[in-house]
Amino acid sequence: MQIKVEEKNGIKVCSAEGDIDINSSPQVKKAFDKLVQARSEKVVINLQKVAYIDSSGLATLVEILKNFKNAGGKLKLCSLSNKVKSLFEITKLEKLFDIKDSEDEALQTF
Q1: pTM of model > 0.85
Q2: Number of helices (H) and strands (E), helices first, in the chain?
Q3: Which of 15, 19, 23, 101 is most enclosed, with most CB atoms within 10 A?
Q4: Helix (H) or strand (E) holding 59
């Protein structure tokens, strides 16, 4: 699992690559905890290169969202594959997360 963080117009864009599962979830949480501690207020997680998320990965993303909200920040997800998008729909998490089709759309809607 790799997470590349860039800044675009004052918004942190985090591009994840690899599966978010029981093995990588602690690494993912640690990376986003750093952004919460740095008081990053606007964050986009680009999941274009994530093919698989298991239940622990979903739980980690929910925890990350909660941590950003508690710190006064906003978090958006974008570029979900059809498989990952259907997982969010099945679990009803698309109602919890702000999910955009593209990174550009996510950046424009802050």
Answers
A1: yes
A2: 4, 5
A3: 15
A4: helix 55-70
